[in-house]
Amino acid sequence: MIKFPLAVNHDVLMRPLEEEDFSGLCRAYLRNRDHLRPWDPLRSEDFFTEQVQADRVRGQLKERDTGRLVPWVLTFGHEIIGAVTLSNVALGPFRSANLGYWIDAKQTGRGLATEAVRAAGQAADEQLDLHRIEAGTVIANPASQRVLTKCGFDVIGTAPKYLHIDGEWRDHVLFQRILNDRSPG
Which segments constitute the N-acetyltransferase domain (predicted)? Predict the structure, then answer.
């Protein structure tokens, strides 16, 4: 059974999102504004304020409490340097969730995304008893595609105009990872 906080490597932890994280997330999004722009929806100026981040964190924690969302942050010391989220958690016969993640521009290339995605997959299997997780990447994001492939995800197709990203409807490569073949409990 995976326990959090989890050491992703010797100096980075992955832990559940907390209400007090809004300020650190605000700083992280400001710092990574240009880095994340090609992979994110258009963000209004107020997205980068503590007030909006506080509202977002409260909303995510509310969704977590309903069982539909599992949010984590990655920290380097006291600084937030990324996030991993399992969203749209569905139980019953589907037992599935969507995976999203990002890493601070200054921390890329260290294997942090790979280790965080592995940990999220393990938690999805062992703690949430999910059957599968799905992820999508903009076609022009080979780095994220490599992370998913390294973590055991398989390409299941291409979705034309899947999400409105950086001001346009973007085609995405869709991936899934089958976690287990247990019957729904």
Answer: 12-180
Q: Are 74 and 8 in contact (CB under 8 A)?
A: yes
Query: 174, 96 in Cβ contact below 8 A?
Result: no
- State the pLDDT at residue 21: 98
**Strand pairing report for 132-138 and 96-103:** parallel
pLDDT in tens, 94-112: 999 999 999 999 999 999 9
Residue 91: the pLDDT is 95
**Stretch 6-26: mean pLDDT:** 94
Give the pLDDT score at 1: 63
Give the torsion sign (CA, 46, 83, 120, 160).
Answer: positive
Domains of the chain: 6-130 (3.40.630.30)
The kind and range of the H/E element at 142 are: helix 142-150
The pair of three-digit structure tokens given for residue 114, joined into one six-digit string: 């790979």
- DSSP state letters, 67-82: TS-EEEEEEETTEEEE
